[in-house]
Design a protein that fits this description.
Blueprint lengths: L5 H34 L5 H37 L14 H6 L7 H15 L1
Length: 124
């Protein structure tokens, strides 16, 4: 099993930290929008329905952002403990191009395919 270069790890770490800041800014913005929406409770039934739909979408977005933030934190922790870039399914090194594209990934392409096959098999 080959080891990831320090340059690749540093590049991925910079991307992770940048993405983390972007996500935190989006979370703050969404929270502010939700607070503003909660303060504005007037309007007819149509206005209220539109506002409720927007709030639901904002909550779904917040949950997705929290999940991605968690994945980034896991990747940063793996960098600290020296296990970054190792596929959780195959225990092989994840492809450099994949790490550059999705630095928080936990799976190699092969590992992702294996996991997808298992999920399909047990979803039935």
């Amino acid at each position: 099993m080959s080891v990831l270069s320090q340059a690749l790890i540093e590049e991925c770490k910079a991307k992770l930290l940048e993405t983390k800041m972007e996500i935190l800014n989006r979370v703050r913005s969404n929270q502010s929008n939700l607070r503003n929406s909660a303060e504005d409770r007037g309007g007819d039934e149509t206005d209220q329905a539109v506002r409720n739909q927007a709030e639901t979408e904002a909550v779904v977005t917040q949950e997705r952002l929290r999940f991605q933030l968690h994945e980034i934190e896991v990747a940063l922790a793996k960098m600290s403990d020296g296990t970054y870039g190792i596929c959780e399914e195959t225990e092989e090194v994840i492809e450099a191009a994949r790490l550059k594209a999705i630095p928080w990934t936990r799976l190699s392409i092969e590992g992702a395919e294996i996991r997808e096959q298992l999920e399909r098999r047990y979803a039935r």
